[in-house]
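Example 9 (inverse folding). The structure is encoded as follows.
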């Protein structure tokens, strides 16, 4: 059974995952408006994945004797200067989420809530993968560049990544 303190922390993370989904969905809309269909597709899938992360915590809290609580979700940014900025912001956000998950895992251990600690191990691995993915994308953007040809190649790469996630 979850302590009130742990349920509150999990609900905070639940809402962060929900916000993450909104960030990626808004980035998707921006990319689509720029004619970057591959990037938009990738970001839309990322948004859906973040919703899955949110629902996993939602279900865990409810199954563990707590009550999932959806709080107020801030509106994400709507304008970006470039695809590079989109992915820089996404990478920075994933690093922030990783820190949040680590703090949550530490809190579970401090409470000797072994079930929650074990539950969070999936998120720790997932965040490792997310950071590696966005680091790789940033490396490619830096390597290829963001001129028109580079932008075309990056957009095509993002479309291929999106297709692989199905």
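The amino acid assigned to each position is listed next.
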């Amino acid at each position: 059974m979850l302590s009130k303190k742990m349920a509150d922390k999990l609900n905070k993370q639940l809402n962060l995952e929900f916000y993450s989904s909104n960030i990626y969905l808004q980035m998707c809309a921006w990319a689509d408006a720029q004619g970057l269909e591959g990037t938009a597709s990738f970001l839309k899938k990322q948004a859906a994945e973040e919703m899955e992360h949110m629902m996993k915590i939602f279900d865990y809290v409810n199954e563990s004797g707590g009550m999932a609580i959806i709080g107020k979700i801030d509106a994400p940014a709507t304008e970006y200067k470039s695809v590079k900025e989109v992915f820089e912001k996404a990478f920075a956000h994933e690093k922030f989420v990783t820190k949040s998950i680590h703090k949550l895992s530490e809190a579970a251990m401090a409470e000797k809530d072994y079930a929650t600690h074990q539950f969070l191990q999936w998120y720790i691995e997932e965040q490792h993968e997310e950071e590696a993915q966005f680091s790789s994308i940033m490396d490619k953007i830096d390597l290829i560049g963001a001129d028109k040809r580079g932008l075309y190649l990056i957009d095509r790469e993002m479309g291929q990544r999106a297709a692989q996630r199905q």
